[in-house]
């Protein structure tokens, strides 16, 4: 027997202590040795593969923990066990009354899970799933497909617990999430154009390399871990009337629903999805998990084409309402959260609040409503673009084309009208050649900043009363 094998055998024969938190109670160097050794081995094996060319059979695609023929709903006990085990390893995040309560006519509380170390609630399930592995699985390691937050959570807690982690991320995964996973020392494979393709490769690799596949929205331990958020909410906010849950694969929804309804069946549970991938909504309509073609959305974390079978089985009878949110309201929600709540929240994490911004939940007026802000991982360049779009949707950034007199004083007059209305010019350009109006006219194209959409309308009216040809790009919103 070679020495590596010897060490591993020795480890596997060491008795496990109850409720220990890592590759249990082993000499630290010994644990580190196994971890590094296995990661190196996996890295080398994966680098030799041409993943796209792997032959994939139906058997490769089986995940025995997520069996469509035999879905397993989680129970409240699973969630309380998860809460006990992850205590101390995952933050208890604040759940505070929002400045936006007056604006929305609801008493809004934000559960700030974007404050977790890796910036999302996914740590809850990831840590619990890792802690629940058998000793042998802890040595062999795990694999997952994820566009970002589940991957980051697994990679980070894998590093802390010395459990090797491989993640397969689709090509659309945000750069920030990919580089974070690498920074946690995990093996990152970029493959597949969407999460479903990434999952196919991950399942194949799990079988080839003896890695346990952990579905980020459907493994029962993941659902139990996510449910711990509801236990905290109920302790932090007395007399909650409703929780509005951003939904992708529905793992968070399942965990929160089972926990909250067990504690108080009167709490209303609302699922909020992007209308560009409303897979839970469609599944509820069809009475079973239903494939929904995802379109590109700001809420990349929610773009899961098929909800989890265990998640659906856990949640579908208990969820009170499902709403589909438009992209522009997700953008406005991100802007509001930044401006009024001082919170940087990604599209998926802002989707619950976006449902309220869009006016999809009028029945919650006057109620105590908790909204998980469940992720904050947004690329800075995307955030910049989102904010500009949100300002347009909000009617605070407007674009106009006005034909004015091309004589001395024509432009001054135009600018005076703009500034007397409290608007400021961000950009201005002139067009002369392509005009059909009289030769002494010029078309001015301007991008203007105004206080709000009402001011934009006022300005539009004033411009129209002075100039004949005024065109405004569509604007408006909440
Ligand atoms: C920030 C954020 N919010 C919500 C969700 C939805 O979670 P689930 O897939 O469990 O429905 C995700 C999923 O990745 C997410 O990243």
Automatic annotation (TrEMBL):
Listed Gene3D superfamilies: 3.40.50.1100
Protein name: L-serine deaminase
Protein keywords: Lyase, Pyridoxal phosphate
Signal peptide: none
GO biological process, one term: L-serine catabolic process
SUPFAM superfamilies recorded: Tryptophan synthase beta subunit-like PLP-dependent enzymes
InterPro entries associated with the record: ACT_ThrD-II-like (IPR044561), Ser/Thr_Dehydratase (IPR050147), TrpB-like_PALP (IPR001926), TrpB-like_PALP_sf (IPR036052)
A molecular function (GO) term: threonine deaminase activity
Domain Tryptophan synthase beta chain-like PALP span(s) in chain numbering: 87-375
UniProt similarity note: Belongs to the serine/threonine dehydratase family.
A Pfam cross-reference name: PALP
Lineage of the organism: Eukaryota, Metazoa, Spiralia, Gnathifera, Rotifera
Cytoplasm listed as a keyword: no
Cofactors named for this entry: pyridoxal 5'-phosphate
């Amino acid at each position: 027997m070679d020495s590596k094998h010897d060490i591993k055998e020795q480890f596997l024969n060491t008795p496990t202590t109850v409720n220990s938190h890592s590759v249990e109670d082993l000499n630290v160097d010994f644990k580190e040795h196994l971890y590094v050794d296995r990661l190196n081995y996996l890295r080398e094996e994966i680098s030799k593969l041409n993943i796209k060319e792997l032959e994939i059979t139906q058997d490769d695609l089986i995940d025995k923990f997520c069996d469509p023929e035999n879905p397993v709903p989680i129970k409240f006990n699973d969630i309380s066990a998860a809460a006990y085990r992850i205590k101390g390893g995952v933050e208890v995040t604040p759940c505070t009354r929002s400045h936006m309560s007056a604006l929305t006519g609801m008493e809004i509380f934000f559960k700030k899970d974007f404050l977790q170390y890796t910036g999302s609630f996914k740590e809850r399930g990831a840590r619990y799933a890792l802690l629940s592995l058998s000793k042998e699985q802890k040595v062999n390691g795990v694999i997952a497909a994820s566009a970002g937050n589940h991957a980051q959570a697994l990679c980070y807690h894998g590093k802390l617990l010395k459990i090797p982690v491989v993640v397969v991320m689709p090509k659309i995964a945000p750069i920030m999430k990919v580089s974070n996973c690498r920074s946690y020392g995990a093996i990152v494979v970029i493959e597949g154009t969407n999460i479903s393709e990434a999952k196919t490769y991950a399942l194949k690799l799990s079988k080839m390399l003896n890695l346990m596949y952990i579905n980020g929205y459907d493994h029962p331990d993941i659902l139990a871990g996510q449910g711990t958020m509801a236990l905290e909410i109920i302790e932090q906010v007395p007399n909650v009337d409703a929780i509005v849950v951003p939904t992708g694969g529905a793992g968070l929804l399942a965990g929160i629903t089972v926990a909250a309804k067990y504690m108080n069946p009167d709490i209303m549970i609302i699922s909020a999805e992007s209308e560009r991938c409303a897979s839970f909504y469609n599944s509820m309509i069809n009475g079973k998990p239903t494939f929904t073609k995802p379109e590109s959305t700001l809420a990349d974390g929610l773009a899961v084409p098929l909800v989890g079978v265990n998640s659906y089985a856990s949640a579908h009878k208990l969820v009170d309402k499902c709403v589909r949110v438009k992209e522009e309201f997700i953008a406005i929600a991100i802007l509001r959260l930044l401006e009024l709540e001082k919170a940087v929240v990604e599209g998926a994490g802002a989707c619950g609040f976006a449902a309220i911004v869009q006016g999809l939940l009028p029945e919650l007026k006057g109620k105590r409503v908790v909204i998980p802000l469940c992720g904050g991982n947004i690329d800075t360049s995307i955030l910049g673009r989102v904010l500009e779009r949100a300002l347009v949707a909000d009617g605070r950034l407007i674009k106009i084309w006005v034909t004015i007199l091309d004589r001395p004083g024509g432009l001054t007059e135009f600018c005076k009208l703009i500034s007397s209305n409290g608007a400021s010019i961000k950009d201005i350009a002139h067009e002369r050649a392509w005009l059909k109006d009289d030769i002494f006219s010029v078309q001015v194209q301007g991008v203007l900043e105004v206080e709000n959409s009402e001011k934009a309308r006022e300005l539009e009216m004033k411009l129209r009363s002075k100039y004949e040809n005024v065109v405004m790009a569509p604007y408006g919103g909440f």
